[in-house]
């Protein structure tokens, strides 16, 4: 199910519908994310490395907007002897079903609680690590401050948030260049101009990016004491925020 090639936008759609993480997307998601997000496999691997560095023994770890559980698995693998409980949340029932199957194949199911729910409205247990891996960009902008604040309040001293996002740039020329470089990346991975255009239309007003300065200001306001950009490629970044 998870090895299919992404051909969702390969033919012209009479009307491009709003993007959603439904069964059709779930079937091709590993291929879609690998060909669409620069450095995605590296980000996943390094989330595991960050968990090994920052996860505190016998504490909760969150993967919020977990999709198929790749970050969950990375964290679980490199904290195997620390007694951590992992909570993976997604609002897509299709994603949660397939994540359960994939996580079971890793032998980590006993440590992982999979929840179908809206991360923008949930409360959090005390935790030493939370991951929002290309999740915040899909949450309504007016709910983002409160979500980050609740996460910060729940994070133990020395704990972290890993925040990965597609960003926009305040300078129009810079934004145009970085967008074109991202499109070149996608073309190099076999996507046609038609696929790129239709996917962009489907994501309009669904994926709403912010600037790096917006993210840093929100994290500081919430009380994170250190903020580091640890990954960037074109208009994709990942931040490490330390409580």
UniProtKB/TrEMBL annotation:
Gene Ontology process terms (BP): methylation
Gene3D superfamilies with a match to the protein in the record: Vaccinia Virus protein VP39
Keyword terms, alphabetized: Methyltransferase, S-adenosyl-L-methionine, Transferase
Chain sites annotated for binding S-adenosyl-L-methionine: 40, 65-67, 90-91, 118-119, 133, 200
Molecular function GO terms recorded: methyltransferase activity
Membrane-spanning parts: none
Enzyme Commission number, as recorded: 2.1.3.-
Top-level taxon of the source organism: Bacteria
Residues covered by the Methyltransferase domain: 63-159
Catalytic activity: prephenate + S-adenosyl-L-methionine = carboxy-S-adenosyl-L-methionine + 3-phenylpyruvate + H2O
CDD domains membership: AdoMet_MTases
Family membership noted in the UniProt record: Belongs to the class I-like SAM-binding methyltransferase superfamily. Cx-SAM synthase family.
Cited function: Catalyzes the conversion of S-adenosyl-L-methionine (SAM) to carboxy-S-adenosyl-L-methionine (Cx-SAM).
Subunit: Homodimer.
Annotated protein name in UniProt: Carboxy-S-adenosyl-L-methionine synthase
This protein's encoding gene: cmoA
């Amino acid at each position: 199910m998870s090895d299919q090639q992404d051909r969702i936008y390969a033919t012209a759609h009479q009307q491009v519908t709003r993007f959603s993480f439904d069964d059709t997307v779930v079937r091709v998601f590993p291929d879609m994310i690998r060909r669409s997000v620069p450095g995605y496999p590296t980000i996943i691997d390094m989330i595991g490395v960050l968990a090994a560095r920052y996860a505190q023994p016998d504490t909760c770890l969150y993967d919020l907007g977990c999709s198929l559980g790749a970050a969950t698995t990375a964290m679980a693998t490199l904290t195997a002897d620390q007694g951590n409980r992992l909570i993976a949340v997604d609002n897509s029932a299709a994603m949660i079903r397939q994540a359960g199957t994939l996580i079971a194949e890793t032998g980590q199911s006993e440590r992982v609680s999979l929840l179908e729910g809206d991360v923008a409205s949930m409360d959090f247990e005390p935790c030493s690590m939370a991951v929002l891996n290309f999740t915040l960009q899909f949450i309504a902008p007016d709910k983002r401050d409160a979500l980050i604040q609740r996460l910060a309040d729940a994070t133990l001293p020395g704990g972290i948030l890993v925040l990965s996002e597609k960003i926009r740039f305040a300078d129009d020329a810079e934004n145009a260049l970085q967008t074109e470089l991202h499109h070149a990346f996608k073309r190099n991975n076999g996507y046609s101009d038609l696929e790129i255009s239709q996917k962009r239309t489907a994501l309009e007003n669904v994926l709403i990016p912010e600037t790096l300065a917006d993210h840093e200001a929100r994290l500081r306001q919430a009380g994170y004491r250190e903020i580091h950009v640890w990954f960037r490629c074109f208009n994709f970044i990942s931040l490490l925020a330390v409580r």
